[in-house]
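Holo model, zinc ion. Inputs:
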Amino acid sequence: MAAVNASGGEHGGEADGPAGRAARRWVCPCSVPPVLLATVEGDRVNLKIRDRYYHIEGVQGRVRATCPRCGREHTLTLKGGATDA
Ligand SMILES: [Zn+2]
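Output:
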């Protein structure tokens, strides 16, 4: 699997219908298993931080996250509703 590098942290976009709530895993592939940064459902970003869950809805634009293991920064681009353009 190709590494998700600096620009455009998107990979393996399945063509899910808008109604389909298929959560996409946003990961850093630096280790096995990959480090989960967040899950994405359409315009919603779900974050789990220790015992806490954050559901951020209506996200448009870019989300940046730094992998806690390798320190690499990842950028996820969301376009309000359209999962993958
Ligand atoms: Zn990493």
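Residues 28, 30, 35, 67, 69-70, 72 surround zinc ion (CB under 6 Å). Confidence is low (pLDDT under 50) at residues 11-17.
Archived with the compound record.
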